[in-house]
Amino acid sequence: MGTYSQDVVAQLSDFWVDRLRDAQQRGLAREDLDLPGAAEWLIRMLVSLVGTPGSAVDVDDRDALLAYLQTFLGPAFSPT
Fold this sequence. Notes:
Helix content is 66%, strand content 0%. The protein contains four helices and no strands.
């Protein structure tokens, strides 16, 4: 992404704001969620998972990745 990271984040942000708003309306995301901020944070986390190898989760293993996201991402967005 390098030089164009600001453009990519801005363009992807609109997509995720819409998805998060839909999740709020369906009761799947906190009502008090800052949608633009949450969308940007989500993009940054996903880019990090894809672009930075680590040992905590095998991003090529769908079940492992889903469990990882449910553990760490879910609580950030889910209503109590």
